[in-house]
Amino acid sequence: MFMARLLSGVVLVVIAAVTLLTGGYLLAAVCLFISLAAYGELVKACKIRAQGQGLNALESVGDLGIVCYYAVVVFTESAQAQLFAILFTMAAFMFVYVFAFPKYRAEQVMGAFFCFAYAPVMFAFLYLTRELPYGAYLVWMIFISSWICDTCAYLTGISIGKHKMTPKLSPKKSIEGAVGGVVGSALVGGLYGYFLVEQVVEEQQVTWIFVLISAVGAVISQVGDLAASAIKRNHEIKDYGHLIPGHGGIMDRFDSVIFTAPMIYALAVLLMGRG
Predict the structure, then answer these.
(1) Are residues 119 and 180 in the same domain?
(2) Do residues 197 and 133 lie in contact, with contact meaning Cβ atoms separated by under 8 Å?
């Protein structure tokens, strides 16, 4: 199990490095694949698709909505068009609900839209961050705020963790670990900004901006991690899937990244502008 987890982790890092450095259509395609896979895992976890059942109409509408949303994100720069794509997808869910009634319950329809907005729409901000001015540097902040935070929180927690943060939801996570994750993420983000980005961005000093972005992103990433865990506990499942050996499903590995990407994008635009 350890070797499978290690090898798949190395493969994930290599894929992430290649796609983030390349950007463009390659990154968009990888984000689309991850979004479709995450949506499928969430739909199954939330019982919108019954165990052993194939694609149903609600999941199909969600898949089509994801493809259309990414097409709008990639081929237009209009936030209004992106909003319309989300609203049209919601309308399509309601169309299925009304004309297939009473096949689907209201809870299933609302759950399907939640799954669409939660993973695919939020994860698209990774691509949008990469497309910002200096996005080739900013996009790494998403992973510093999530994966680095997760590592620092774990190491701090097993070393000095005493006070449980969410004892009923995740008993092994401690307040000390959470603080260690934020501090570690902020430190790595600051070093990254000072040594690699400061020389490139001439308009402003970015080191302290990167410290702030990393710290806030680290807080959000831990909420994202816990939110994904809460969904699993609500539905009594251990993992979202088995796509990544040793890690589980896409949602098990990218839960914090999904939550962090919109925050990093928002902070980058707010503090550094669109150029």
Answers:
(1) no
(2) no
